[in-house]
Amino acid sequence: xxxxxxxxxxxxxxxxxxxxxxxxxxxxEGDAITRLxxxxxxxxxxxxxxxxxxxxxxxxxxxxxxxxxxxAGERTEFDLTLAPVGTPFQMQVxxxxxxxxxxxxxxxxxxxxxxxxxxxxxxxxxxNGRNPIAIIVPxxxxxxxxxxxxxxxxxxxxxRALLALEQGVxxxxx
Length: 174
What we know:
Layout: E1 13-17, E2 24-29, E3 32-38, E4 52-53, H1 58-71, H2 88-98, E5 106-107, H3 108-114, H4 121-129, E6 142-143, H5 156-166
Parallel strand pairs: 1-4, 5-6
Antiparallel strand pairs: 1-2, 2-3
Helix pairs in contact: 3-4
């Protein structure tokens, strides 16, 4: 028999969301989203043994609904409580990512300048690559200074698809 957690105990919960770019693993603790990873079935970011699948959890259901709206082209901003874990610099970069408007892109150097550290484009790239909440914290909107698509943890095909969706070039089936 499962004993419910005490009110002070934080239970990590997750759900798997179907999307046009592959399955998404969405993770929550308390009332906040802490992670969103693509393609958990490939094993790199699989659910941990002590996590509990909770498809009907209100926090996860709201995230699922907003992601469905995003992929249908009906949502341009996410309104979710987020709690990523990172260094102060990473948190600063991730906040900067959320300021890049839907349908727009920014280079690593531009983002470094906007967060007040114009010489930190490489460090911005590393922090961008460690973003634990993909799509919602839009790391896919960062491109090379020459306009080229650069590394993306979800793969360049997914990055290309997300940017095309946001630029109205394509509608992804949900």
